[in-house]
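Render ABC transporter domain-containing protein in 3D.
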Amino acid sequence: EEEAVEADEEEGEDLCNCTFSLAYGAKILLNQTHLRLKRGQRYGLCGPNGSGKSTLMRAINNEQVEGFPKQSEVKTVFVEHDLDSADTEMTTIDWTMKKLGEAKVDVTQPDVEKQLVEFGFTP
């Protein structure tokens, strides 16, 4: 058990280690859900349509998730998924670079490519 604690500490400082619930109207989307994020990492949110991804990101962006750091403490970027017709002709990498640029996130294309591959996207 001691080794597990040491390995966990090597991952970095906790940015968020909280349990929360999230509803959309009368529908409970997440009930007593545990969220743990490490400082210095980038995270993506994946799931099926209607599972509450956008609702969760809006709640984080609006500082409505109990235990999640405020915007003064951490940078969060929520990119709406509505596509312009011009966007449909772009590659995933180009679209991601465009949206991150619009959000003033400074990142290199190789870093974006690496993250997308880690999330199962092909370049």
